[in-house]
Amino acid sequence: MDTVTEDGRRTRWAEHRRRRREELVTAALRAITTHGAGIGMDDLAAAAGTSKTVLYRHFADKEDLYLAVADRVNSTIVRELRAAVAAADGPRDALAAITSAYVHLVEADPEVYRFVVSHPFLERPLTTDPVQRISGAIADEAARTITVHLRLAGARDTSADALAHGLIALIRTAADRWTTSPDPVPAATLVDDLIQLAWGGLDAVLAPAPEEVP
Fold this sequence. Notes:
Blueprint (H helix, E strand, L loop, with lengths): L2 H33 L5 H7 L4 H7 L3 H24 L5 H18 L1 H9 L11 H24 L6 H21 L6 H19 L9
């Protein structure tokens, strides 16, 4: 067998495995949405129309499957946030877009959100927490967006990065609590309250610096 043919087969097989792995992640997400964040591997495999044996052909263990689900959720959140802030007219609009997008993504699929946040398939601490990675990616996006608008408005932006990470932590913690509340307020109310709370502090801290008196 010539090298070109062998390489072609390996490439096709690798692509097949990649696609199958993505299909299984999609099936896992559907199963979590339907059966809840506490779903186990046996029930997840059955709900996905496959078996644990098949899952373990494509994922090293249940931790690997969890990380693949978390990565998909991470990509979805960041993509939605970028789309939400693309048309923002200023730092407040950007903050509002980020807050609204995050809360409504949680509202749209709370079981998947709980699954990622609760780490149900992890049996040992990870070097990098997927949830922290998601929060960090969102905060980085928020910092870039808010910094650009602050500079355009002539406001000082030296603290924008640190403050953006703090604001995302505020939004995430509020969303975490909201999803477990026995009597949660409507998503729109939580979004409005978070925007008022966050912008009240951000507006004061990042106001244009007064001109120096000679």
